[in-house]
Amino acid sequence: MGCQYFSPCEHGSGSFTIQIPKITFGRDCLQEAGARAVSHGMSRVALFTDPFLKDGAYVETVTGSLKAAGIDVAIFSEIRIEADDASVERGAAFIADGEFDGVVSVGGGSVIDTAKAAMLYALYPVGDFLDYFAAPIGAGKPMPGPLLPHLACPTTSGTGSECTSISVIRITELDTKFVIASPVMLANEALIDPACCDSLPGNIVASTGFDLLSHAIECYTAKAYTQWTKIEDPTKRPLIQGANPWSDLAATKALEIAGEYLVRGVNDASDHEARDQLMWGASLAGMAFGNSGTHLPHAMSYGVTHLMRDITTSDYPVPSPFIPHGISVIVSAPAIFRYAAEGAPERHLEAATSLKADMKGAGLDDAGEVVAGRIIDLMKQTRMPNGLTDLGFSADDVKSLAASSARQARAIKNTPRETNLQDIENIYNAALSYY
Ligand SMILES: [Fe+2]
């Protein structure tokens, strides 16, 4: 089935390109930060983190290791959870003023994404902040050159940002999030220490875990790379290039991990095996979707976080309105896969099998239902919201949600079915509640 999915298409790409950072994984590996930074020639480092981690043990470990290796360290922590343009501009000014020769990021996706974007705007300033964002909101300006050496240290098990060339930033003026992506944004190294997840509240493990699950299933079910139009200059091929044999490999393992360990890791903080596996699964999913792209669940999450109102999520120290990224993604996912499976039913069946769904008697016509049923089952077991209604939305919001998300053009094109505005409205309607 895999080979058939990647059959050559007229005018389609005949090859795919993979790029990932050097990766170190294991408990206590944050202590390697100093030696690894030296290996990249760093002597003065901007350490990006957030206000909640700044005085904590992980930053202390990394800072101690860097200083022991003879490296000057200056900490920047003025980063909003769900990073925004103001965080990036503050970070860019910090880098521009500091004469740094390297960046180390310690935190979740917001921190790592801010570090990537701040380097870009510090090194290659533009007149309009949106210049580097893709159309229709930005000018799609190419990134002129390399960034500083970057050592990324994730402290949550979901985003996979340490392994991707993607930065997701909230644009305050437009009140919504957009992606900047380029191979130059990829960190040089990732230090992935699963001990960082030992003390995470269950609700954070759940929302980040569903982000990892959705990254994996979206890239496994994405449009094949052979169906994207061939780019004449191969050096300009984007890493968001559609499903390919590499993303399949990493996504399949990440789905198996999510199917086996998500509920355990959420419900039992002392289950180190489960939480370590989720950390590895998040990085695998990052290596997968970072080289394929996501599709509708991520595209449609942006409408949710754009239009959310008067809502918070327990365990997150963030004022209303706030819906964690992973929840904004997964809340529409069952309805999306019921819709999308028609475009690639074999792939959806395979993904459901990896997620350990009940496959008894399931045929191609059941592909969307088995995926949706398994995701709903996992959402129930981890007390996730039962659809958009639980997040404060109603049928009256559907048109606005769809109009907002329709701007995520490239992700929507990565869906295995042609998808228009009416389809997106229909999916949001089907995602209002599930049971
Ligand atoms: Fe995500």
Q: What is the secondary structure topology, with strand pairs?
A:
Layout: H1 2-5, E1 22-25, H2 33-39, E2 44-48, H3 57-68, E3 72-76, H4 85-98, E4 102-107, H5 109-123, E5 150-154, E6 166-171, E7 176-181, E8 189-192, H6 202-221, H7 245-267, H8 272-289, H9 296-307, H10 325-330, H11 333-340, H12 345-354, H13 367-381, H14 398-405, H15 409-413, H16 421-430
Parallel strand pairs: 1-8, 2-3, 2-4, 4-5, 5-8
Antiparallel strand pairs: 6-7
Overview of the structural elements:
With 435 residues, the protein is of the alpha/beta class. It has two domains: 2-16 and 201-430, Dehydroquinate synthase-like - alpha domain (Dehydroquinate synthase-like, alpha domain); 28-192, Rossmann fold. 43% of the residues lie in helices and 9% in strands. It has helices at 2-5, 33-39, 57-68, 85-98, 109-123, 202-221, 245-267, 272-289, 296-307, 325-330, 333-340, 345-354, 367-381, 398-405, 409-413, 421-430, and strands spanning 22-25, 44-48, 72-76, 102-107, 150-154, 166-171, 176-181, 189-192. The strands form two sheets. The chain has a six-stranded parallel sheet, with helices on both faces. Strands 6-7 form a two-stranded antiparallel ribbon. α5 links the parallel β4 and β5 (150-154). α7 runs antiparallel to α8 (272-289). The site of fe (ii) ion has 5 residues, from α6 and α10.
